[in-house]
Structures are given as structure tokens and as C-alpha cells.
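in:
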């Protein structure tokens, strides 16, 4: 009788621990991450027509990454669109806004000669809350760069959709970029 009661108590404690774990993974208004430590399939509506080169890439060493990337680098135009998922260590998990406005900004300050965040805002994807920033930068070789980046964090998974390039090319291909940002799909994102 005592043994059966202890089992029921142990099961109750386990249920409470699981609830706490799930609650901690949704701390920033986000859904719990799938169990697999590897990124899942990533896709977006690829641009039609000549001048675009698109590729899928998966990296399993170091920080696991799965990405789809389309690039336009012809006739003097320069534009890159990416959709990627990567998995970080537990100690590296931060909310989407902090990742975009602090962590990424520090990286951009090393990559570009000048970085200016034009705007940032909360974005939603269903019930999931993320963050978007519009950035103007200057690169030593490419010159002026305009960038839009959206980030969602679910547990240890980071989902990122972005477009960057020459500001004039960005304007010329704005419809393609908008379709890219809206059509990005991630296997592991609810």
C-alpha cells in the first residue's frame, strides 16, 4: 500500500517538474521547442526569373543550422534573402528582442563600418511572438546596406528570416522580399 502511494507521489512530482520545464520554455510567450536538437526543414517562396541563385544548406558541427538562401548578385544588383533555424546551448537562450537588438547588433558592429537601427517592433506568427528590426548599415566593400530581420525564439531554437542588400535594389524587389518574409516556413515552428 505504501509502495503504491509513493509511486503516485513520484508521478505527481514528475508531472509538476514537467509543467515547470514546459512553462520555462514558453517564458517569452513562445511555444515549447520540439525534442530534437537538430534544426528541421526550412523553406520560403523562392523568387522566379533570371538572376537569382538559391540554395539549401545544413551545418551539423558547432551550432547546428538549417537554411535556405537566395541571392541576387548580377547586373550590379546585390540582394540576399535567408530563412534559417539554428539551435543554441541552454545558457545562450535569450528573448527574440534581446537577440536582435543586442547580440546581433554586436555582430553587425564588427561586420559593418556603421550600423543604425531604423525601427524595431513586435511581430506575431500565429500565437508566437517575435521581433523585427529594420537596419541601415555601411559595408567597406558593398557600400550602403538595408536590412529587414525577423527573429522568433522557441526554447533553444532560433528562427530567423531576413533580407538585405543595396537600398535601391531593396526597393526594386520589395514585393519579392515581402513574399519571402511572409512565406518562410520552418518544420519545427508551430
Amino acid at each position: 500500500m505504501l509502495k503504491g502511494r509513493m509511486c503516485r507521489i513520484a508521478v505527481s512530482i514528475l508531472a509538476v517538474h514537467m509543467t515547470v520545464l514546459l512553462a520555462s520554455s514558453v517564458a517569452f510567450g513562445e511555444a515549447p521547442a520540439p525534442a530534437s536538437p537538430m534544426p528541421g526543414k526550412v523553406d520560403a517562396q523562392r523568387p522566379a526569373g533570371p538572376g537569382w541563385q538559391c540554395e539549401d544548406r545544413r551545418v551539423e558541427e558547432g551550432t547546428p543550422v538549417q537554411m535556405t538562401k537566395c541571392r541576387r548578385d548580377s547586373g550590379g544588383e546585390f540582394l540576399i534573402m535567408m530563412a534559417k533555424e539554428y539551435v543554441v546551448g541552454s545558457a545562450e537562450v535569450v528573448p527574440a528582442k534581446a537577440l536582435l537588438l543586442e547580440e546581433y547588433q554586436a555582430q553587425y558592429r564588427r561586420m559593418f563600418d556603421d550600423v543604425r537601427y531604423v525601427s524595431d517592433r513586435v511581430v506575431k506568427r500565429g500565437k508566437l511572438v517575435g521581433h523585427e528590426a529594420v537596419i541601415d548599415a555601411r559595408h567597406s566593400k558593398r557600400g550602403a546596406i538595408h536590412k529587414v530581420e525577423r527573429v522568433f525564439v522557441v526554447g533553444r531554437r532560433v528562427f530567423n528570416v531576413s533580407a538585405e542588400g543595396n537600398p535601391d535594389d531593396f526597393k526594386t524587389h520589395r514585393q519579392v522580399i515581402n513574399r519571402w518574409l511572409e512565406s518562410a516556413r520552418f518544420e519545427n515552428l508551430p
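note: Residues 29-186 form a domain with the Protein Transport Mog1p; Chain A fold (CATH 3.40.1000.10).
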